[in-house]
Write a structure and sequence with these properties.
- The chain has a two-stranded parallel sheet.
- The chain has one domain.
- By secondary structure, it is mainly alpha-helical.
Length: about 100
C-alpha cells in the first residue's frame, strides 16, 4: 500500500501495522442514508498529489456532497494527516466550527 512517496520504510511499517480490513459491503452496498441530503454539514480535504485517488476523482467524490460542502486543499499525498498533521487538524477544526455555525442559523 502506498501512503506517501516520501515516507521511510520504518514509518510505512509502523502505520501499516495499525491497519485493518474493511468489509467489502462498505464499498459495494448502496447507501441508504446520505448525511449531506439530511442537513448534516459535510467537508472534504483534497490531497493534491495523491497517487491513490487522483484529484479529478476526489473532485467528483466531493461534488456529491452538495453545493454547501466545505472543501480544503493540501499539497498532500494520500494520507494528509501524516505529512501535514497541523494543516489537517486546522481544516477539521474549521469544518467543525462551520458546521456548528450553520446549525445555529
Amino acid at each position: 500500500m502506498a501512503f506517501n512517496d516520501g515516507m521511510s520504510n520504518e514509518d510505512i511499517e509502523l502505520y501499516t501495522s495499525h491497519l485493518g480490513h474493511s468489509a467489502v459491503a462498505a464499498s459495494a452496498t448502496p447507501s441508504v442514508y446520505e448525511s449531506w441530503s439530511n442537513g448534516i454539514p459535510c467537508s472534504y480535504i483534497f490531497c493534491e498529489i495523491d497517487n491513490c485517488i487522483t484529484l479529478p476523482v476526489q473532485q467528483m467524490m466531493a461534488s456529491q456532497l452538495g453545493p454547501g460542502a466545505l472543501t480544503f486543499s493540501l499539497k498532500a499525498e494520500h494520507v494528509p494527516f501524516i505529512g501535514f498533521p497541523q494543516e489537517s487538524a486546522d481544516a477539521i477544526v474549521k469544518a467543525a466550527a462551520e458546521g456548528i455555525r450553520r446549525k445555529d442559523l
